[in-house]
Automatic annotation (TrEMBL):
Lineage, broadest ranks: Bacteria, Bacillati, Actinomycetota, Actinomycetes, Propionibacteriales
Keyword line: Oxidoreductase
InterPro entries: Ald_DH/histidinol_DH (IPR016161), Ald_DH_C (IPR016163), Ald_DH_CS_GLU (IPR029510), Ald_DH_N (IPR016162), Aldehyde_DH_dom (IPR015590)
SUPFAM superfamilies membership: ALDH-like
Annotated protein name in UniProt: Aldehyde dehydrogenase family protein
Biased composition (Basic and acidic residues): 457-476
Residue ranges occupied by any Aldehyde dehydrogenase domain in the UniProt entry: 28-472
PANTHER family xref list: ALDEHYDE DEHYDROGENASE-RELATED
Disordered: annotated span: 452-476
Residues annotated as catalytic: 253
Amino acid sequence: MFEYAPAPESRAIVDIKPSYGLFIDGEFVDGTGKAFKTVNPATEEVLAEVAEASDADVDAAVKAARRAYTRVWSRMSGSERAKYLYRIARIIQERGRELAVLESIDNGKPIKESRDVDIPVVAAHFFYYAGWADKLKYSGFGETPLGVAGQVIPWNFPLLMLAWKIAPALACGNTVVLKPAETTPLTALLFAEICQQADLPPGVVNIVTGAGDTGRAIVSHPDVDKVAFTGSTDVGKAIARAVAGTNKKVTLELGGKAANIVFDDAPLDQAVEGIVNGIFFNQGHVCCAGSRLLVQESVADEVMERLKRRMATLRVGDPLDKNTDVGAINSAEQLAKIRELSDIGEAEGAERWSAPCDLPANGYWFAPTVFTGVSQAHRIAREEIFGPVLSVLTFRTPSEAIEKANNTPFGLSAGVWTDKGSRILSMANRLRAGVVWANTFNKFDPTSPFGGYKESGYGREGGRHGLEGYLKGEDS
Ligand code: NAD
């Protein structure tokens, strides 16, 4: 492999303030609680101090959302709401480079991903739901909004998860209080500025920053009508318990342990690209990552050889370098979790191989890693690692592949690689996964519903289905 010269994207386009308040009722206000720091995971540089919203702050945000809901947003016609959503979508496109650079700095993901995937899909999501705002009567879910939505999101796709939450909620006439994850608050705060720039009526979108306690305050607030959560299965279960017995409507998008299944008739070079994209895209911090490779025994050796050769060419390093394939792990805590599970994999007898690469001295890094000789009982085959770590299992027949693929408490996504269309259809029917990709992986489109079976959660985001979680239903 030849060397690439550094090709850093300039960070001059972003203006990170030393400290940030909360966005409540259309204004940035000081929080009444403490503050926390957000760091660049690629360098450990402190980027800014961010307010940690207290119960009182959350209450103020919910009150602002309620006022905006009753007085303005729920009374506005769908076509008027659509104008705001279109305006937000266009501003996101116009400020796309700024958003992409800020996302890469705060999250650690490679600029080529934030620039070419996250931000364009965010804009597409707002465009898509802007289109629904005046057509709700054709949705099949009624036209009546729920009220105030409390939304809590994770750190792996900070702005994209915000878009998945806010765009359908607003299109349906709800107002929102959203909390970004504590390690990645900055693009949500820039989004708040975009709401101001778009002249969105005050209180329609409120952004409160903080950690688990702030999330708990949103979820348990009595005047929140709808809870939308994306994050870990453990926290999802706690939220389900917290809202049980209330009238709150809930959608949960939780963890995954997807099987990426390669048959012996698959085009192997393309399959190897799909395996790499499936587990090393976004450092493997992807709920629907193809973290379990199931490869047909007759081609297993060949696939592994090609995969290792391909992995050795992945460039790991500075997220702002346009040639970087794999960026930084999002936090010290996440890095410790990836290390722990990988060590357990080795201790349980699986064979570990990591791509040879020089990791930067500062920041949080983990080399792309693959485990072979993995059995279904191993923890690395069962638990979500949420990092650039692939577990490889083999199978002989389609039925064995299905049995192994479905042998998981999760059910978010799966991939099938084969030359036969009939096999794709039969596998897709039998896989207990919300999304099944065929001869591709990790493709996202706002028109397509996304969501899980079993412990991967309930409710769907995206597409017409994504409206259901924000409307009262046909007969109300
Ligand atoms: P996490 O559950 O630790 O945190 C998610 C969010 O919940 C954060 O904003 C956090 O501050 C908040 N939170 C923590 N405790 C809370 C509580 N008790 N009440 C309310 N809010 C609380 O998850 P994470 O580590 O940030 O994200 C990784 C997880 O997210 C993975 O399991 C991944 O699979 C999942 N995920 C799922 C999807 C999906 O669409 N299914 C998408 C992305 C990520």
